[in-house]
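A further point concerns the way the authors explain their paired sequence and structure data. For illustration, here is how one protein appears when written out as sequence plus structure tokens:
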Amino acid sequence: MYNSKIIGLGKYLPENVVTNADLEKIMDTSDAWIQERTGIKERRHILKGSDDTTYYMGVKASKIAIERAGISPQEIDLILFATLSPDYYFPGSGVLVQEALEIPNCPAMDIRMQCSGFVYAVATADQFIKTGMYKNVLVIGSEYHSGGLDMTSRGRNISVIFGDGAGAVLMTREKSKKKGILNSQLHSEGKYAQELSLIGPNTRRWVPEIMEENNPDDISYFPHMNGQFVFKNAVVRFSEVIMAGLKKAGWRPQEIDILIPHQANLRISQFVQKKFGLADKQVYNNIQRYGNTTAASIPIALTEAWEEGKVKKGSKVILAAFGSGFTWGSITIQW
């Protein structure tokens, strides 16, 4: 039995910056309104005509992570691709990454756990590595939200939140039981599935039916979020799952070197920070610059924190997420 550890990190963000002032020009909103409720100042959106897609952003982030890990793509044994915005309805984006990186016969799985996707993917990679089935696992979180948002005043409550981007990590074996991924906590509560969802098209209402209806007021193919309800559940579940990881590792909150929460809403992160009595330097937030990039938010933030020297050898790191499903989870890491 092995532990697993992260040995390479990478991120990719589209160059196109969309500020709150830009959104004021196309919908009834304001910079003050957006910042007060979410903490977001700007986000990245893929420009129409760009080569960037969900999988291709993942490829760009992966190449950086693989190079930093010091291995070749051909040494990767498994790809786990977390996303809610795959390039196609099927096949999944993971196989597209496998082809682009020229990895022969490497298994690739898409993990559809939305905002919790990267945490679920890391936990899955950890188990494959611990059992000895695979040695080197590439874990990707990538999202292309902007093309599927209602960028009008009708959709402003959701559309101002989301951005595009990708992050990736390379995980491998660690012989020491006191280093690497110490534990993972995963949960879901399906009774609230539709409180944060994108319902159509679906197998009960396929594309031909939607086209036949020709209803311009149909918004089922845009994301839906019961904002206040999601917020209330998020702050509770974040706190519970972080504490569960700490207890299993035998850590106290003040021992955390860096907490990297899913970048859903700055107010959620601040609430959790206050509850655990953490200093600003113990919590990493970048939602102000990138918005909510769903499955990509944690690997992007983790990569930035590492690049800035805030994650280093010996660091006690907590990753935590909450999102659609409802799903939530945490990863406890001794770096």
In short: The longest helix spans residues 227-249. The two ends are 19 Å apart (CA to CA). The chain has a mean pLDDT of 95. The first strand starts at residue 3 and ends at 12.
